[in-house]
Specification:
Elements lengths: L8 E6 L4 E4 L1 H6 L6 E3 L1 H8 L2 H10 L12 E8 L5 E12 L6 E10 L15 H18 L3 E8 L2 H7 L2 H18 L6 E3 L4 E7 L3 H15 L3 E3 L2 E3 L3 E8 L6 H17 L5 E3 L2 H22 L5 E10 L5 E11 L5 E2 L1 H10 L3 H20 L6 E6 L1 H5 L3 H11 L7 E6 L7 H13 L3 E7 L5 H7 L4 E4 L2 H4 L7 H16 L3 E5 L4 H9 L5 E3 L9 H13 L1
Parallel strand pairs: 12-13, 15-17, 17-18, 18-19, 19-20, 20-21, 21-22
Antiparallel strand pairs: 1-2, 1-6, 2-3, 4-5, 5-6, 7-9, 7-12, 8-9, 10-11, 14-15, 14-22, 15-16
Bound molecules: ligand C2E and calcium ion (CA) (2 copies).
Ligand C2E binds next to strand 15, helix 10, strand 17 and strand 19.
């Protein structure tokens, strides 16, 4: 007889005779004739939950030969002698006759999955185990009648910041709201599941890329308005990763992994989008993981491969260079230049931006000090990530650094991009006020691209606003009164509260003149005056030329 060694149930079926032996606890707990009997299926099928039966039958096909063997691994509900359905995971293996290549024995275990909570306590949605089960049912349906489909995994953008800014309780409310928004727009018959953290998922049998795109657009619409939770306005977007089956996998674990990779890519690509898994995308995702390692290596090797380029900022009053923005460059260990759009996000996600940020600041200060000799008063603008502001040691480092290089703080501007902040004004302002008190100026970067620029203007204490390139791109078009007015009004508004305006991305003379004369911008930065250059080239181009 099969010995009982744990809580699991064991069985072995002689396939030729259709005779089964089961462990004593299995005979005890389920309505089967005993420990040894004929025709297991006759009894077992009756005990399986009707919703799970089809999938189970599909998963337990006896393979014709060793080659076709996929084993058996399935989770389902089964009725015990008390009449309760319990969740179990059944894993089985076929043994093959070497001579005939036919299976002759099927052995395995049935493991109790315990009293699983099927619903997620917070949102009331079915949980990840149910999702796994639903995927397996969908895959069985594909095997049975060839109907493929898609899986979508949704993730909230910036949920970590929401949690950090407020508290877990508030975060929970956001999750509940998200659950409702997504559920509300799903086509009839589709069910939303709650996975770990801030993720949700849905199985879409019979659907293709066009269908999931429509679903995503509808979800996006629900998120497009700000919502008030506990008196606070929250603006939250959602990204999703989609994987098609059977094209991108025929197994739950593979599909889940691919969907998560696609979600990660959607977030890396700027969030608020759906990314459909493809081999090409997957390779890109893997590249970003290897970029992570390369960046770490660069940092460990004393910032090997990192450098700062400088782009001139020109005063509209004097037409002269008054400053430069320091822009980070990175050459990977194989010698390829990588775009900051790609690697800065990774530095931020991994918090490697903290050591790199120190290096950036120190390198920029050193450069600024050097350039003061011949260009007294020139400022250097340094980009700051939100992660760096949260780092409590940054401010002390900044002060110490300025002392070490004997540089006056008014030559330094710190730029913070607005899209990265959610809303903890008080903390950010506190940090900024400290910088400002010691004489460093603060610029709000990329004005106009974030969620609510005017709110930022109202709440953030800053000295300079940098208006984003998106407003400049079409500003000279004849009928584009709106952008022209918008830039003009923004500049006036800033001036009225003593904030300077720098306009970015100016590429043509026509744009420059318009921005100077009609919009009254203070400084201009853009390819018209120069692209970011290495310090040597910058000197060559702007200082030497000016002296000559
Ligand atoms: P940003 O801070 O808005 O920097 C301006 C970007 O616009 C630069 O791209 C610059 O090369 C580009 N640009 C300037 N003028 C023009 C123009 O006339 N036309 C066009 N098409 N583009 C122009 P870059 O160097 O690729 O940097 C991209 C972003 O990466 C930066 O945007 C900034 O957010 C981030 N970044 C760069 N360096 C650093 C850094 O040292 N620290 C941090 N935290 N972020 C950085
Ligand atoms: Ca900037
Ligand atoms: Ca900018």
């Amino acid at each position: 007889m099969i010995q009982r060694t744990s809580d699991d149930y064991f069985f072995a079926t002689d396939l030729q005779e259709n005779l089964v032996m089961v462990s004593a606890n299995m005979a005890n707990d389920f309505a089967i004739p005993g420990e040894c009997f004929y025709d297991m299926n006759k009894y077992w099928f009756k005990l399986i939950h009707p919703d799970d039966l089809e999938g189970f039958v599909e998963s337990i096909q006896i393979p014709e030969s060793r080659k076709l063997n996929m084993g058996h691994d399935y989770e389902y509900r089964i009725k015990n002698r008390k009449g309760d359905y319990i969740w179990v995971r059944c894993r089985g293996q076929f043994a093959f006759d070497n001579r005939t290549d036919k299976p002759f024995l099927f052995t395995g275990t049935v493991k109790k999955l315990g009293q699983r909570n099927h619903a997620d306590e917070l949102t009331g949605l079915l949980n990840k185990y149910q999702f796994e089960h639903a995927v397996k049912v969908a895959l069985n349906r594909y095997r049975a009648d060839g109907v493929g489909g898609a899986l979508m995994v949704f993730g909230l953008d910036n949920f970590k910041i929401v949690n950090e800014t407020y508290n877990r309780h508030y975060g929970d409310e956001v999750l509940k709201l998200a659950a409702k928004h997504i559920s509300d727009v799903l086509p009839a018959g589709l069910m939303l599941y709650k996975l770990d953290g801030d993720e949700f998922a849905v199985v879409c049998p019979g659907m293709d890329v066009a269908d999931v795109t429509t679903i995503f657009e509808n979800v996006q619409k629900g998120f497009s308005r700000p919502h008030t939770i506990e008196g606070k306005n929250i603006f939250c977007t959602v990204s999703s990763g989609t994987v098609l089956y059977p094209q991108s996998g025929k197994d739950y674990l593979v599909l889940h992994k691919h969907a998560e990779a696609a979600l990660d890519l959607a977030k890396k690509d700027g969030k608020n989008k759906n990314c459909v898994f493809s081999k090409e995308n997957y390779n890109r995702w893997k590249r970003s993981l290897s970029m992570r390692d390369d960046l770490r290596l660069s940092i460990e090797q004393d910032f090997e491969g990192f450098s700062l380029f400088f782009q001139p900022q020109v005063s509209t009053k004097t037409n002269k260079i008054v400053g430069a923005e320091a822009l980070l460059r990175w050459r990977n260990p194989r010698g390829r230049m990588v775009s900051p759009m790609e690697f800065i996000r990774i530095l931020e996600e991994t918090k490697m931006i903290i050591p790199v940020g120190h290096w950036i600041f120190e390198t920029a200060v050193k450069q600024c000090k050097k350039w003061q000799e011949n260009n007294p008063g020139m400022t250097i603008s340094i980009n700051l990530s939100y992660e760096q502001i949260k780092d409590a040691t940054f401010k002390d480092f900044v002060e110490d650094c300025l002392k070490r290089y004997d540089l006056s703080p008014e030559h330094i501007v710190l730029e913070l991009t607005e899209s990265t902040i959610v809303s903890d004004w008080s903390n950010i302002n506190q940090q900024f006020d400290e910088f400002r008190r010691c004489g460093i100026r603060i610029a709000m970067d990329d004005f106009g691209t974030g969620y609510s620029s005017l709110a930022y203007l109202k709440n953030l204490s800053c000295d300079i606003v940098k208006i984003d390139r998106v407003f400049v791109t079409n500003i000279t078009k004849k009928d584009n009164h709106f952008d022209r007015r918008l830039v003009g009004v923004t500049v006036d508004l800033c001036h009225s509260v003593n904030i300077n305006c720098c306009i970015e991305g100016v590429e043509t003379n026509e744009e420059y003149e318009l921005l100077r004369d009609i919009c009254h911008a203070d400084t201009i930065q853009g390819y018209l005056f120069g692209r970011p250059e290495s310090p040597e080239n910058f000197e060559e181009k702007y200082f030497k030329a000016a002296q000559a």
